[in-house]
Every structure is written in structure tokens, then in C-alpha cells.
Amino acid sequence: MYRLEPEHLEGQSVSVAAEVAAEHLEAHTSGIADALQTAAADQQAHDREFGRWLGVILKSGVWLASLVVLTGGVLYVMQHGMEPVNYHHFRGEPARLRSPVGVITAVRAGQPRGVIQLGLLILIATPIVRVAVSWLVFMKRRDIVYSVVTGLVLIGLMYSLLMAYL
């Protein structure tokens, strides 16, 4: 790196010395500005890539959930499509299908309602996975503010999800 030393200006008039100093300052600050622009461009590229990955997570989760619900719906219609419908009495989901463990058990048993419920669980889990991935990325970047905020959101989501089953 070139340094402007006093002996470079010896014998120069004040105006020439000021001109040399200004050129030196411009060259030095130009390098800093270029480095800052490069860093900003790199950060923007990383942010775009991060946004793309979050989009892929959300789209994949929605498509997977839709496919699972559709599969469960087709299986349900195949097994129960000819049964008479009684709209006079509302019957909610059975208790065994109101917890993730019960849903997995129903899916393993080949019950279509369990498959439909699994699709709904995947749909609910999709934004939670997105927040968890965001938190991990912010932690890796050592972005304290976003890590704390995203962590609090993740804790709130997990609390609301898990406390429903405890």
C-alpha cells in the first residue's frame, strides 16, 4: 500500500502539495468504497439466495401437504364413498386423530383419515420449518438482532403447537 510521506511533498508549492494529498486521499478512499460496494453486492446475492431457499421450503411443504391430503381423500372416498351421509349430527375428528402420535399410528394402520390429518400436519409444520431454517441462517451469520427475534418467533410457534398436546 502506498503511503503519502512528508518527504514526497518537500520542495512543492502548497497548491501542488494539496493536489498530491487530494489525489492520494481519493485513491485511498476509492479502494475502501470499492470494497464496501463489493461487500454490499455479496450480501445482496446471499440475501437473494436465502430468499429463494425459503421460497423452495414453503412451496415444497405446500405441495407435499396437498399431495398427502389428496391421497388421503382419494383413499377415503374409495373406502367410504358409498356410505350414506348424515348431516344432522356433527361428528368431529376422533380423539385418536387429534395428536401427532395418533395421526402417525392411523397412517401406519392405513386409515385414510390419518393420511388426511398427516397432510394437514405437514401444512402446519411448513412455516415452522421456514422459521427454524431462518433462525439457523441468522445464527450462522452471527446476526444477533434477527437471531433473537426469529428465535422468539420460533419459541412462540413451538409453544403454541406443543402445548395443545400437553
What does this entry look like structurally?
With 166 residues, the chain is mainly alpha-helical. The protein has helices at residues 14-80, 100-108, 112-141, 144-163.
The largest sheet, given as strand count, sense and whether it forms a barrel, is: none
Low-confidence stretches: none
**Strand residue content:** under 5%
What is the ordering of alpha helices and beta strands? Answer: HHHH
What class do helices, strands and sheet pairing give? mainly alpha
Q: Tell me the overall shape.
A: elongated
The radius of gyration over CA amounts to 31 Å
Distance between the termini: 65 Å
User: Would you report the number of β strands?
Assistant: 0
Give the rounded overall mean pLDDT.
80
Name the helicity range. over 70%
Write the layout of secondary structure elements.
Blueprint: H1 14-80, H2 100-108, H3 112-141, H4 144-163
Helix pairs in contact: 1-3, 2-3, 3-4
Descriptive key words:
mainly alpha; 0% strand; 76% helix; 166 residues
Brief description of this entry?
The chain has helices at residues 14-80, 100-108, 112-141, 144-163.
